[in-house]
UniProtKB/TrEMBL annotation:
This is 3-hydroxyisobutyrate dehydrogenase. InterPro entries: 3-OH-isobutyrate_DH-rel_CS, 6-PGluconate_DH-like_C_sf, 6PGD_dom2, 6PGDH_NADP-bd, HIBADH, HIBADH-like_NADP-bd, HIBADH-related, NAD(P)-bd_dom_sf. Keywords: Branched-chain amino acid catabolism, NAD, Oxidoreductase. Residues 3-162 form the 6-phosphogluconate dehydrogenase NADP-binding domain. It catalyses: 3-hydroxy-2-methylpropanoate + NAD(+) = 2-methyl-3-oxopropanoate + NADH + H(+). Pathway: Amino-acid degradation; L-valine degradation. Belongs to the HIBADH-related family. Transmembrane segments: none annotated. The keyword Membrane does not apply. SUPFAM superfamilies: 6-phosphogluconate dehydrogenase C-terminal domain-like, NAD(P)-binding Rossmann-fold domains. The lineage of its organism: Bacteria, Pseudomonadati, Pseudomonadota, Gammaproteobacteria, Oceanospirillales. PROSITE patterns: 3_HYDROXYISOBUT_DH. Its EC number is 1.1.1.31. The keyword Oxidoreductase applies.
Length: 295
């Protein structure tokens, strides 16, 4: 049975780790926050006292951290895990980070004879809980093939995007598009409501018309239109505004590096920055609806 060291058990990491336990993997888990560790302990995982402790004698290391600096400091530098790894575990970083950071850390791993993949995910907390995430993987084919069975325990679609960093490039393109259609959906819903329409009726019409998109159909931002989405739970949980803002920043950096024009992404980033400044950084990203209703 494969032994996995799992570091970062937040909104996404915790349900992902639970699915690995359900699929009979042996887990060593660590997070700076003790709360999710207790939940996993009750399921049979071993709770480590540090990240270094979590990766002792494991076959695979998985990390699911907020952003590039977290990943870089976890793995690199004199106190980083790369300096203390024993054996040859496969490293899979599932965080959404800058492609350049992913390439840098995987190169540092390769310099130590280790294999490291970037494998960011799409599908949100619901996908993580259901084990239906989409994994978007960057690395070579052998690394991809070794990681695939483990990723299949947490996801239903596993894509090989290309070499190291390619998973991150594909992920940030997707999230830039997601931000743009979420904002457009919120704008259209607000326009309809301000003109006297019922948001549910308007959503049903647009879902069956050419305005159909994922934000409208699966993750509707207007409170009360859909059950079990953050909009109907005071925008609690889900994918935080500050994480979307971070991803849009990564998209802007990637655009700048090749002089790609991203007018919609630039505007989306600015609107999410404004929304965060209004004190909504820790709400789900569909709360951008509030920007239109002036809250
Ligand atoms: P989160 O903030 O809920 O979880 C991150 C966890 O990492 C926290 O529990 C934190 O305590 C832990 N952590 C930070 N530094 C650590 C360290 N040095 N050692 C151990 N633990 C550490 O974030 P999340 O929503 O789970 O997102 C994680 C990543 O997945 C992000 O890069 C995000 O962009 C991406 N993502 C999130 C979603 C979503 O819907 N939430 C969807 C797709 C991708």
């Amino acid at each position: 049975m494969k032994k996995i060291g799992f570091i970062g058990l937040g909104h996404m990491g915790l349900p992902m780790a639970k699915n690995l336990v359900k699929n009979q993997y042996q887990l060593n888990v660590f997070d700076l926050n003790p709360e999710p560790l207790q939940e996993l302990k009750a399921l049979g995982a071993h709770v480590a006292i540090s990240a270094t402790d979590a990766i002792q004698n494991v076959d695979v290391i998985i990390s699911m951290l907020p952003s590039s600096p977290h990943v870089e400091s976890l793995y690199s530098g004199p106190d980083g895990l790369l300096a203390s790894i024993t054996g040859k575990p496969l490293i899979i970083d599932c965080s959404t980070i800058a492609p350049d950071c992913a390439r840098r850390v995987s190169k540092a791993a390769a310099d130590k004879g280790l294999h490291m993949l970037d494998a960011p995910v799409s599908g949100g907390v619901a996908g993580a809980e259901a084990g239906t995430l989409t994994f978007i993987v960057g690395g070579n084919s052998d690394e991809f093939n070794s990681a695939k069975p483990i990723l299949e325990a947490m996801g239903s679609k596993i894509f090989h995007a290309g070499d190291h960093g390619a998973g991150q490039v594909a992920k940030i393109c997707n999230n830039m598009l997601l931000a743009v259609h979420m904002i457009g959906t919120a704008e259209a819903l607000n326009l309809g409501v301000e003109n006297g329409l019922d948001p549910k009726v308007l959503s049903d019409i647009m879902v069956s018309s050419s305005g159909r998109n994922w934000s409208l159909e699966v993750y509707n931002p207007y409170p009360g239109v859909m059950e079990n989405v953050p909009a109907s739970k005071s925008y609690d949980g889900g994918f935080l505004v500050d994480l979307m803002h971070k991803d849009l920043g990564l998209a802007m950096e990637a655009a700048q590096s090749v002089k790609a024009s991203t007018p919609m992404g630039t505007l989306a980033r600015s609107l999410y920055a404004m929304h965060s400044q209004h004190g909504h950084g820790q709400l789900d990203f569909s709360s951008i609806q509030k920007l239109f209703s002036g809250e």
